[in-house]
């Protein structure tokens, strides 16, 4: 919480790095407690509000046990691994993809390049050995979870409501933020539930297996569904993954799904305004891109639909 606050709030970040920490990055207790330092916040706030902002920050440090007033010591030791989790959380709020990747690649180097080591109460001489937190080309060890080959029988399970569990995937270096993972799994489940509800309303029998999120046969052909939870900040990257998976699964199960397969990529939200072209791009590949309508139990898309999907989606 401390790091995320300091990372996102320029006032707090600069107050720590410019007023509290010395030129080497070590916190000075006298400067932390100096009431006159409230003038730093007067750039943004009225003097009375600035004084309150300074005292609120000091109180926050005490309440979170970062500052111990009895021993007059700061506790931001890095040996318990808090920085890794804090950097992952901060990266989720970083809109600049370059900065996000740099932060995840190595948070210590990221802070050092910007002269923000004061956020850690550590000098360059005492920095731990820099170890990448997450490598962008090998975040989870995804290949361990992939067990696919062309099949000769379309095995699968009837879709049913089930309790949510963690993915169980192994992680290369750090465990990805559990809150984000839980949100993703719940969003994914909600989308599964919705497409299944719509399919069953048409007297269809949705199923799933260890690879395919949802598939079902219709009188005019099969439907192959890949589901992706997403936000505006990762819509494009999630779409890329989904496109690749749909083509792979269509190949692996092609002899069983049949020649007329409607591929549906179902996203949690509509493409952001700058990415609306992806709808037409994906359609050019033979895939229908769709998304859940806000505040409605409806799946929307744009443009004409292949016959197997004609009664399932709402066309704008």
Structure description:
There is one protein chain. The chain starts with a helix and ends with a strand. The model is unreliable at 133-146 and 165-180 (pLDDT under 50). It contains 12 helices and 10 strands. It is of the alpha/beta class and 316 residues long. The strands form 3 sheets. Strands 5-6-7-8-9-10 form a 6-stranded mixed sheet, with helices on both faces. It folds into 2 domains: 2-126, no CATH class; 142-315. It has helices spanning 2-8, 10-20, 29-33, 47-63, 82-91, 97-105, 107-113, 142-145, 178-201, 235-252, 254-257, 277-284; strands at residues 67-68, 73-74, 157-158, 207-208, 214-218, 221-228, 261-267, 287-292, 299-301, 314-315.
Quick tags:
12 helices, 316 residues, alpha/beta, 6-stranded mixed sheet
Largest β sheet strand count, sense and barrel closure: 6 strands, mixed
Helix content: 25-40%
Backbone shape: elongated
Arithmetic mean pLDDT: 83
Radius of gyration: 25 Å
Oligomeric state of the chains in view: single chain
Topology (elements, then pairings):
Layout: H1 2-8, H2 10-20, H3 29-33, H4 47-63, E1 67-68, E2 73-74, H5 82-91, H6 97-105, H7 107-113, H8 142-145, E3 157-158, H9 178-201, E4 207-208, E5 214-218, E6 221-228, H10 235-252, H11 254-257, E7 261-267, H12 277-284, E8 287-292, E9 299-301, E10 314-315
Parallel strand pairs: 6-7, 7-8, 9-10
Antiparallel strand pairs: 1-2, 3-4, 5-6, 8-9
């Amino acid at each position: 919480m401390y790091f995320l606050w300091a990372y996102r709030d320029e006032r707090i970040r600069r107050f720590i790095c410019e007023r509290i920490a010395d030129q080497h990055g070590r916190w000075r207790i006298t400067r932390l407690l100096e009431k006159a330092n409230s003038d730093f916040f007067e750039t943004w706030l009225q003097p009375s509000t600035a004084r309150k902002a300074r005292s609120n920050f000091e109180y926050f440090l005490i309440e979170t046990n970062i500052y111990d007033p009895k021993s007059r010591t700061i506790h931001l030791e890095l040996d318990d691994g808090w920085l890794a989790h804090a950097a992952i959380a901060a990266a989720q709020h970083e809109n600049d993809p370059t900065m996000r990747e740099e932060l995840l690649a190595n948070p210590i180097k990221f802070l050092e390049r910007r002269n923000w080591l004061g956020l850690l109460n550590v000098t360059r001489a005492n920095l731990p050995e820099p170890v990448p937190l997450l490598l962008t080309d090998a975040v989870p060890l995804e290949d361990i979870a992939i067990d696919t080959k062309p099949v000769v029988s379309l095995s699968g399970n009837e879709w049913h409501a089930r309790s949510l569990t963690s993915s169980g995937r192994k992680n290369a270096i750090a465990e990805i933020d559990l809150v984000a993972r839980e949100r993703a799994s719940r969003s994914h489940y909600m989308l599964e539930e919705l497409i299944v509800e719509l399919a069953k309303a048409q007297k269809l029998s949705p199923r799933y297996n260890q690879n395919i999120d949802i598939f079902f046969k219709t009188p005019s052909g099969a439907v192959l569904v890949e589901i992706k939870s997403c936000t505006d900040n990762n819509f494009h990257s999630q779409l890329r993954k989904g496109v690749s998976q749909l083509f792979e699964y269509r190949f692996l199960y092609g002899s069983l799904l049949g020649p007329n397969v409607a591929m549906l990529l179902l996203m949690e939200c509509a493409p952001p305004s700058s990415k609306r072209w992806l709808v037409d791009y994906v359609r050019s590949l033979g895939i229908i891109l769709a998304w859940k309508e806000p505040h409605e139990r409806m799946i929307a898309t744009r443009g004409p639909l292949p016959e197997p999907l004609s009664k399932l989606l709402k066309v704008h």
